[in-house]
C-alpha cells in the first residue's frame, strides 16, 4: 500500500462504522499517522437503513463519505480496501490493494448477517446490513409489485405480494412497520388496479416476544402497533429454510413468498489471522479487556460490535448497538493519547442512554432509564434522536425534509428501480 | 400482458420521457384505456443527468416514478417492460413480459448513444443517457481517485486522473465544467495528499466550435468559461478509438485515460417491426407528418427525439431536446381528443423557447429569442428554468437545497461509491 513515509507511529483502524469513526475523530491532535481502511468509502448510519429499503430515504441521506467526516484530521489517510488477513507477529495487514504495517491496530469491523450455516437461506434471502443490500430489497419489492400488477394468477400474485421477515429484533420490527405503511398509504395510489389486501406482511420470531432486547412493556406496545397495521406476528416460530419461492417453518408449514428478508441475527465480521483462542465462540467477537485490548496483544484493540468485554453488569458483553461502539471509540482515542504521553489508560464504563424502536407514523416505543413509554411522544423522541445523530448538517436537513414531506403527504418518495435486482435461481 | 378487459379504445405509449409523459398527462378526461410502457419505472429529467454523474445530485432528485406522475389519470396502466417488436399489421406490441394490442400507438422512445459502429468505443466508453450510466460515471471517477491516492507511479496516476470527454455539445460542455468544479473545490479537500494538478480535463469536439447548436456568441463565452476553469478544449479533433486505457485521435496521437466519456452523438432508439422506408436513415428517426403520424400509418404516432418532421423552418427536423417533445406530446393529446370527437387534428408548430447551457458556478450561456448572453444572469436563468421544469414539489425543494448547499459550501455532497463500477478488460 502506498502511504507517505513518516517517522510517526502508525495507527490503523479497520472499519468506518460508529466505532471507527468516533475513534478517528477524537484522535485529532495526536502526533501519529492514522490510516482508516473500509470496504466502502462511506460511513453508514445503520439505524435508518430500513428506510432506504422501504423507499423512505435515499442512501446519500444516511451515508457520509469517510474522507469528508475526517477532513480536519491531520496525517489521515483513507484507504478503500478489503482486509484479507492480519499478521499480528509481523504487525502487518494484508488487503486487496497491498499490505501495510502498523504500530497500533484497531479492529472495528462490526458484524455481518448470521445465516446459521443455512446455505439455502444465505443464497436466496435478502439480508439488510449495507446500503447496496438495502437498495436490493427496495428494487425487489418494487419489481414484485410491477410483476403482480401484470399477473392474472392469484396464487402467484399473493407470493409476489407476500413479505416475510425473519427476526423480531429492532430491524425486523422497523421493516415490518415500514412495509405496512407502504401498504396503507403508498401502494394503493400507485397500484390502483391491485387488491392491496393481497399484500401480506409476516414477522417471524423464534422467542416468545418481539424486541427481545427491550422491556416487556416495549414488546407489548410494539406488538399492538404492528397488529393495528395488519402485520401478522408469529412468535416461538423458527424458519428452517427458504428455496427462493417457499419458506418452510420448523413444523413443516410452508408459505409462498418472493420477498424473504433475513434479520434473524448477526455474527462478528472477524478478520483472518488470529488464533482461535482470541475469539469468543458464539458471536464471533474478540475478547478484550476493559481498555479494549484484544486478549494477548498490547497494541491491538477491538471496539464496538466486534468486541466482547465481559463485565459484572454485562456478562455476555455489551449490546451490539451504536452507543457502546461510539463510547468505546471515544475512550480509546483518549487512551491512545494518554498512552502516547506515558500516562495510564482508563477502563471502559458503559453509559446506557436507552433504547428506541419505531413502528410507523406516530408509533414508537422507548426504554430510557427506568421509563417505559410508547406512542406519539416516543416516536417524536425517536425522530429527534436519530436526526441529531446523523452526520453532517446537509444530511439532517435532507432527512428532516423527507420525513416532513412523507408525513404530510402520506408518501414515500424514493420509488425508483435504479438497479433492478435479479433473484437467484 | 395482463390488463383489465374494457370496451374502450386502447392507446399505447412507448417511452416515459418528456414526450410520453406530456402526452399522457394531457390525455386526462379522454375515454380510453391508456398504457405506458417503459424499461424504467421512472421519468428521467435528462438535462440534469450530468449532475448525477458528478456527485451534485442524487437520482431521486431528477427522476420521478411514472406511476406517481400519472396517478390522476383514469384507466391508466403502467407496464415496466422492454419492447421487442411491433407488428403494425396485427396492431400488436411484443415485450419481454408479453404482448398487447393497440388501437393507437405512440412511439416516444427517444434516442440512444451513437457509437458510430465503433465496437471498442461501445465496449470501453462511458455513455451518459440513463440514471444507471450516470451513476457508473460517478463510481468510476471516485474509484479512480481512490486508486490514484494509493498509487506511486506518476504515469499511472495521471491516467487515473485524466478525464476525456468526447463531444462538445451541451452534455460534454456541462460535464467538463462540472469535473472542473470538482477539481477546483471538492477533490483538493478529499485528497489532500494528491497533487490536484495531475487531474486533467479534456474536451474533444469534431467541429470548429463547442455548443454547435447554439449561437457563435454562446460558443465563445462557453469556451472562455471552460478555459478559465482549466479545461483543455480540442476543436476539429476526432477521436478514432479507445481501448480502455488509451484514446487515439485521427492523427494517431494517443492519450492515456481511465475516464473516457462518450457524448459524441445520439441515434433514434427505434423499435423493430417497421419497414425501413418509414425511417429516415441518418439519425434513425421516424418520418412523421405535421400531426406526428408516422408515414403510412394513421394510428401510429411518433413524438420527440424519435420523430422526424420536415418543415420549411426545420428541414432537418426539430432539435432533439426537451421542448419539441413536450410540445408535440401536448398537441398530440389534444389531437387524439379531437379525433375521438370526430374533429380534425391541428398541425404542429414549434415554439422555440431558447437554449441554455451551464458551465459552472455563476457561469452559463443563453440564446433566448434574439438575445445572446452569458455569465451570472444566464446562470441564474438556467437554474430557475431547470428548477421549475423538474417534476414534483419534493424534487424542486431537494434540488434547490442541494444547489444552495453546494453553492455556499463549494461542495458536492453525493460522493458515495454505492455500486462500484468494474471497467471492462
UniProtKB/TrEMBL annotation, chains A, B:
What are the residue boundaries of the External alternative NADH-ubiquinone oxidoreductase-like C-terminal domain, all occurrences included? 353-407
Which domain of life, per UniProt?
Bacteria
Enzyme Commission no: 1.6.5.9
FAD/NAD(P)-binding domain location: 10-329
Catalytic activity reported = a quinone + NADH + H(+) = a quinol + NAD(+)
Pfam families documented for this protein: NDH2_C, Pyr_redox_2
Record key words, sorted: FAD, Flavoprotein, Membrane, NAD, Oxidoreductase, Transit peptide, Transmembrane, Transmembrane helix
Task: Establish whether keyword DNA damage is in the entry.
Answer: no
Q: What class of enzyme is it?
A: oxidoreductase
What's the protein here called?
NADH:ubiquinone reductase (non-electrogenic)
Molecular function as annotated in GO: NADH dehydrogenase (quinone) (non-electrogenic) activity
Q: From the record, give the transmembrane residue ranges.
A: 371-393
InterPro entries in UniProt: FAD/NAD-bd_sf, FAD/NAD-binding_dom, NDH-2, NDH2-like_C
* SUPFAM superfamilies for this protein: FAD/NAD(P)-binding domain
Amino acid at each position: 500500500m502506498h502511504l507517505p513515509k513518516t517517522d510517526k507511529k502508525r495507527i490503523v483502524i479497520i472499519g468506518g462504522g460508529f466505532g471507527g469513526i468516533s475513534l478517528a475523530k477524537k484522535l485529532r491532535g495526536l502526533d501519529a499517522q492514522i490510516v482508516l481502511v473500509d470496504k466502502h468509502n462511506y460511513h453508514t448510519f445503520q439505524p435508518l437503513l430500513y428506510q432506504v429499503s422501504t423507499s423512505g430515504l435515499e442512501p446519500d441521506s444516511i451515508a457520509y463519505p469517510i474522507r469528508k467526516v475526517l477532513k480536519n484530521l491531520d496525517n489521515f489517510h483513507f484507504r478503500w480496501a478489503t482486509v484479507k488477513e492480519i499478521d499480528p507477529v509481523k504487525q502487518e495487514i494484508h488487503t486487496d490493494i497491498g499490505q501495510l504495517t502498523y504500530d497500533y491496530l484497531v479492529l472495528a469491523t462490526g458484524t455481518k448477517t448470521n445465516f446459521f450455516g443455512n446455505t439455502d437461506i444465505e443464497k436466496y434471502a435478502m439480508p439488510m446490513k449495507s446500503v447496496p443490500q438495502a437498495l436490493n430489497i427496495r428494487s425487489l419489492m418494487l419489481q414484485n409489485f410491477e410483476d403482480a400488477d401484470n399477473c392474472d394468477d392469484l396464487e402467484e400474485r399473493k407470493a409476489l405480494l407476500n413479505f416475510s421477515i425473519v427476526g423480531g429484533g429492532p430491524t425486523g420490527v422497523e421493516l415490518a412497520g415500514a412495509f405496512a405503511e407502504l401498504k396503507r398509504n403508498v401502494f394503493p395510489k400507485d397500484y390502483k388496479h391491485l387488491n392491496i389486501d393481497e399484500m401480506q406482511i409476516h414477522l417471524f420470531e423464534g422467542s416468545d416476544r418481539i424486541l427481545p432486547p427491550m422491556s416487556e412493556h416495549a414488546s407489548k406496545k410494539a406488538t399492538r402497533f404492528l397488529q393495528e397495521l395488519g402485520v401478522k406476528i408469529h412468535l416461538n416460530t423458527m424458519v428452517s429454510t427458504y428455496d427462493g419461492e417457499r419458506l418452510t417453518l420448523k413444523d413443516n408449514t410452508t408459505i409462498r413468498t418472493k420477498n424473504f428478508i433475513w434479520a434473524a441475527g448477526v455474527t462478528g465480521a472477524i478478520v483472518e489471522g488470529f488464533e482461535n483462542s482470541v475469539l469468543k465462540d458464539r458471536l464471533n467477537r474478540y475478547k478484550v479487556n476493559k481498555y479494549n485490548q484484544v486478549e494477548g496483544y498490547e497494541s491491538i484493540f477491538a471496539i464496538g460490535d466486534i468486541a466482547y468485554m465481559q463485565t459484572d453488569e454485562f456478562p455476555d458483553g455489551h449490546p451490539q448497538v451504536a452507543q457502546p461502539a461510539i463510547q468505546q471509540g471515544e475512550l480509546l482515542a483518549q487512551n491512545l493519547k494518554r498512552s502516547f504521553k506515558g500516562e495510564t489508560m482508563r477502563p471502559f464504563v458503559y453509559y446506557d442512554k436507552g433504547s428506541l424502536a419505531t413502528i410507523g407514523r406516530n408509533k414508537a416505543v422507548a426504554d430510557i432509564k427506568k421509563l417505559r413509554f410508547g406512542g406519539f411522544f416516543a416516536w417524536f423522541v425517536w425522530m429527534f434522536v436519530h436526526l441529531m445523530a446523523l452526520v453532517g448538517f446537509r444530511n439532517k436537513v435532507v432527512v428532516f425534509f423527507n420525513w416532513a414531506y412523507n408525513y404530510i403527504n402520506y408518501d414515500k418518495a424514493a420509488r425508483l428501480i435504479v438497479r433492478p435486482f435479479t433473484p437467484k435461481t
